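Tutorial, part two.
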Amino acid sequence: MNNLTKKTVFVLLVAYVIVISGCSSNQQLIIDDSSQHNPWNHLNFYNNPDNFQFAIIGDIEGGRRDGVFEEAIDDLNLMKPEFVMSVGDLVHGYYSKSIDKLRPEHDNINALINKLDMPFFYVPGNHDNTNELCLNEWIARYGKTYYHFIYKDVLFLCLDSQDPPDAHRTSNFSDKQLAYFQKVLTKYKNVRWTILFLHQPMWLNSPNNNDKNHTWAKMQKLLGERSYTVFCGHYHRYLKSIKNDMNHYILSTTGGGAQKAESTERAEKPAGVEYCNFDHIMWITMTKEGPLVTNILLDGIFNDEPCKATENQSKTWY
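Running the prediction step on this input gives:
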């Protein structure tokens, strides 16, 4: 299980089935609360059926470090989110000019993704569809580069920020893609929240992802006054921004290229949280107030046996 036996977070995602004494048959707690004083603070369990949890992974490629995404797969299976979202750069593909080189990259990453116990939703990055060869392979495998779905009255928009592909890292939404999401957003005006996933942080409009046609502004206009949150990757440096009173997040990495502390030069290991370059899984709890975001570092997640000790040793450690 990779390094999981060396580290742990003791994620207590356990479903308790308990029932309150004297309550109706559809309630699930049995407990004697007849005393004036009881050894608990209250019995308002945090179990709203409208709430749900899902995970997001950051970039895997752009200098992939072997073993990190493999560890993340094991971690996700321990934590059991309801599903997993991506923000692109799943394969190296960016420089692939041969289909014989590109196909094994997809095969290898899918072999890992298929180990997940829960659904995984693909979003393309510039490494995944930077040219016609890469785009055609993506379409052959996954059918489309942008799409949507609704889960528990939350609208999920999975966008293609390289449409059409551009080897110069230009970000763009095609007119066809904008028309597609205009139709989706018009149809689903009254969902409780909208969440966008794309690879490039187009709202920054930097030289590294130049949105020269200002298509992000067009997407923002389509979003209108609804409540929404945006998640992306690309830079391998974590950033939270607030635009139009809405949260916009850039994930760091989940095995993608590590960077030195105060530069974008490659490093063997991420610079660390203080430099916003780290390996993590983003854990989202969807509430009535919107997504509650928690970042979980990969080097802080363990299974139920993070160390080896004997009973005699345990007696002496106090």
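The chain has a mean pLDDT of 87. In part three we will examine how such features are distributed along the chain.
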